[in-house]
Description:
The protein is α+β, with helices and mostly antiparallel strands. The protein has helices at 2-15, 18-34, 90-98, 108-115, and strands spanning 39-52, 55-66, 74-80, 84-88, 100-101. It starts with a helix and ends with a helix.
Amino acid sequence: MKLLVAALMASVHLAGQAPATDGLLADAAADFKAHTPHPADVRNVHPGVLRDGGKTMPIVCGQFLPEGENAQWTDFSTIKTSGYEQALGWQATALCGKAQLDANSDLTLTLKSKLDVK
């Protein structure tokens, strides 16, 4: 029962992050469009929160497949700061490993639509 209550509280907390998550997806898409490498595909995109030094910051974590031959799936994260910060590769892996992600909320299709990726 305690586990169920904790899960419900976490889902309510994460659901309260919806406006920040929408903004982070827009920021992630804009960053990918403005800088290389550009994604040919994205997968496993999940919202969450990152707690650091008493601060709680909304985060979106996922993987992207860069355009080009011999491309490999690469982790990315987008964090709400005073604006936003996007990390790729090992930095994103480290940040997402510390974050509390909502595995039940997959935002992959939403980000794909913002990136015009099929």
